[in-house]
Amino acid sequence: MHFVRVACGQSVAGLARHPALFWGMHSNERAATVRATAPGGIGNLGPGLDILGCAVAGIGDSVVASRIQERGVRVDDPGHPALPRDPERHASAIAAAAVLRLANVSDVGIALRVEKRLPLAGGQGGSAASAVAGAVAANALLGNPLEAPDVLRAALASEERLSGRHIDNLAPELFGGILLIRSIEPLDFIRLPVPAALRIVLVHPEMELRTAEARAVLPAAIDRAGALAQASAVSAMVAAFCTGDLSLLRGAVDDRIAEPARAPLLPGFTRAKRAALDSGALGCSISGGGPSAFALVDDDGVAQRVLEAMIAAYDANGVRATGRITCVDEQGARVEYDGAWDTSR
């Protein structure tokens, strides 16, 4: 197994059994019902297309998993009327089934109830959060036979089927923090420090853009100048996080690949980005595949001004938007066992 890395390259094995995922249970114990929650996330994080992402504190998706007599995975509540109950098509169920497969378990049945809080096709890592929560819940229900890297692989089986083979949302939502993805096979990523002053302004215009559609418009190739600019931008962002000097983010949140291709699909985004930068944001870009947009700031007062300016800019473009001020979620997915939560919620 390849170890994940933290703090700018220090190699450790500690995340193999991430404490939030394995709290309170031993491998020979099996709960009747568990509830797992995964936060939302920002994939790409500006110029970091498929390689840089962060978990976002606040709302997330939860999956309640219960044992049933029949074998396999069943979806009792998909979490939203627009989501399928077919376990072959729901993110959480695909991931839960992958856990059963990776754990070599064929005689267990799992029923899932999904609590969907992240927007559908909103660019806030919603499908990834459902997949992570489904994988974590299924693994916990079985008594945690899989270590965290294989839980991630189970979630990836879902994301790969529904939107593409990338983990810049999955891995941060599972492990928390800001992650730089080096490779998927072998699994290798770096956990970057999170400066205490970092704030995220996240704005969601009332529209949907599915990840598959957003990826379809990406260019097949870029020129050398564009590649060098993109590499420089990602490097500057990593330097900002590692040194804690957030001023280095100015001019670094500069995506030359995905943003120019996707911006025409997102009415109001260009105006909202300009408003964010004019209001003091260190940088602004499309969150994941869109339509949500994010801005990075280092001051709570500035964050409020940026939030109001971005919403007003969308409104001026005839697009209703909502938003919030948040920060990086450094914990990632978490699981609660029998009786630790209210099933009536």
In short:
The protein has about 350 residues and is an alpha+beta fold. Helices cover about 30% and strands about 25% of the residues.
What's the topology here?
Layout: E1 5-6, E2 10-11, H1 19-22, E3 33-42, E4 52-68, E5 72-77, H2 91-102, E6 109-115, H3 126-141, H4 148-162, H5 170-175, E7 178-183, E8 188-192, E9 199-205, H6 211-216, H7 224-243, H8 258-262, H9 269-278, E10 283-286, E11 293-297, H10 300-316, E12 321-326, E13 334-337
Parallel strand pairs: 1-8, 5-6
Antiparallel strand pairs: 1-2, 3-4, 3-13, 4-6, 4-7, 7-8, 9-11, 9-12, 10-11
Keywords:
2 domains, globular, nine-stranded mixed β-sheet, Ribosomal Protein S5, domain 2, 345 residues, 23% strand, disordered N terminus, alpha+beta, four-stranded antiparallel β-sheet, Alpha-Beta Plaits, 32% helix, 10 helices, disordered C terminus
